[in-house]
Design brief:
Elements lengths: L18 E5 L4 H11 L3 E6 L14 E3 L5 E5 H4 L5 E5 L5 H11 L4 E4 L13 H7 L4 E6 L14 H7 L2 H4 L14 H24 L3 E6 H7 L2 H10 L16 E6 L2 E6 L3 H10 L3 H5 L6 H6 L1 H12 L4 H11 L3 E3 L3 H6 L1 H5 L3 E5 L7 E5 L23 H8 L12
Parallel strand pairs: 1-2, 1-6, 2-5, 6-7, 7-8
Antiparallel strand pairs: 3-4, 9-10, 10-11, 12-13
Helix pairs in contact: 1-7, 5-8, 7-8, 10-14
Length: 410
């Protein structure tokens, strides 16, 4: 765990030496650039003076300051902006736009998520940036991509989930379509964007060529329909909402016990047979209607009520212990306090603490990076910055010939 008085970690990341110009905000773009920052890249986050990333105001909760009052740093903003340096500048002014172009000449990658065509009027579109830095990798994230009849529409996670079909698959069978509990379309788009940038970086290493990357929330959301999407394409049948049930595996869902809920994930026939034994119903393992997964999927409407009745006679702890003993995948459904207090999460350093000057405690709690490199470890060098926190440093380091007044609001 990173303690608040621990100095910044040394950067041995695989992207050490790579510089990213980050004109993105909200979640998809910042997720992409935070990941690259964790991997060692120098991320320069360009923000509007006095306001910054929209998500700074997306609270409560906010970081509590020394006066016990909320600061301008929301938990939402903290979630996707560590390992970045904030440079406050008004890109809508000629001086501001020129300064960004100057920064772009010294960067390997640029990420933005403005509306389609939104940066062209400031001379910050790909053609303008490539003119001053042909080797740059320019990643444009939008709601529906740069082409097609929907390209002009805004890029919100909820719209992507609605358009891309995942909401039609999520929720109770007799309930309304349901969005996923986090902005997963944004997050997965950010992950796709990061992998695309890294692939383009490898191409540049081989050829010296930069390139333009066009990536849309709706496209990436459709891509991760995965088996449900391919189920439809194969069968021609539109999948129905199954709540917590799985379309292709039975039993693979939530069940109620005496004192709460658990999940059972019997992924094959042997696991199913062992599960039947541990709940005292070996007969269900040999029954012709339930002998194979294919037959269990076909007869789920009769099997699941039987299993639910038997499981309801046991406590969570009792059933989880039996499943672990018999090698049946499953476990409790944790609340977030249970998640972050668990020995597994602590052991894996999935909760970290970073210094933060605005916080009363001097530090903020964050979610750690899940990747464990053996040679080039992730490092946590910069806490999510305040707006413009590093403007002077970046100006001195990279813009010594540029009028520093361009970094201030006019």
């Amino acid at each position: 765990m990173i303690e608040k008085d621990t100095p910044p970690q040394v950067n041995h990341g695989p992207l050490s030496g790579i510089r990213v110009l980050d004109l993105s905000r909200i979640l998809a773009g910042p997720t992409c650039t935070q990941l690259m920052g964790d991997y060692g890249a120098d991320i320069i986050k360009v923000e509007k003076p006095g306001l910054g990333d929209d998500t700074r105001a997306w609270g409560p909760p906010y970081v509590t300051g020394p006066d016990d009052m909320p600061t301008a740093e929301s938990a939402y903003y903290l979630s996707a902006n560590r390992n970045k340096r904030s440079f406050a500048i008004d890109i809508t002014t000629p001086k501001g736009a020129e300064t960004v172009r100057q920064l772009a000449t010294q960067c390997d990658i640029m990420v933005e998520n403005f509306k389609v065509g939104g940066l062209a009027k400031y001379g910050l579109d790909y053609d303008a940036i490539a003119a001053v830095n042909p080797a740059i990798i320019y990643c444009a994230i939008s709601g529906f991509g740069q082409t097609g009849p929907n390209a002009h529409l805004p890029g919100y996670d909820l719209l992507a989930q609605a358009f891309g079909g995942i909401m039609s698959l999520t929720g109770a069978p007799d309930g309304e379509p349901m969005k996923v509990g986090v902005a997963v379309a944004d997050v997965v788009c950010g992950l796709y964007a990061c992998t695309a940038v890294l692939a383009a970086l490898q191409h540049r290493t081989r050829t010296g060529e930069g390139q333009y990357i066009d990536i849309g929330l709706a496209d990436t959301q459709i891509a991760w329909l995965i088996n449900n999407g391919t189920n439809y394409l194969t069968s021609g049948q539109s999948p129905k909402r199954l709540g917590n049930e799985h379309p292709n595996i039975v039993p693979y869902q939530v069940f109620a016990t005496i004192d709460g809920h658990i999940v059972v994930a019997a992924g094959n026939d042997a696991q199913y047979a062992r599960f039947c034994g541990l709940i005292g119903r070996d007969d269900l393992a040999s029954h012709a209607d339930y002998l194979t997964n294919m037959s269990r999927v076909k007869h789920r409407d009769t099997l699941i009520p039987i299993l639910a009745n038997e499981i309801a006679k046991l406590t969570k702890a009792e059933l989880v212990a039996k499943m672990e003993q018999h090698g049946v995948p499953g476990g409790p459904i944790n609340t977030l306090p249970e998640v972050f207090d668990s020995e597994q999460v602590i052991s894996r350093e999935m909760k970290i603490v970073m210094p933060h000057a605005s916080a009363k405690s001097g530090a903020v709690d964050l979610i750690g990076n899940p990747v464990k490199f053996s040679k080039t470890p992730v490092s946590y060098r910069y806490s999510p910055p305040t707006c413009g926190e590093h403007s002077d440093d970046i100006t001195a380091e990279l813009l010594t010939n540029i009028n520093s007044s361009a970094t201030k609001s006019e």
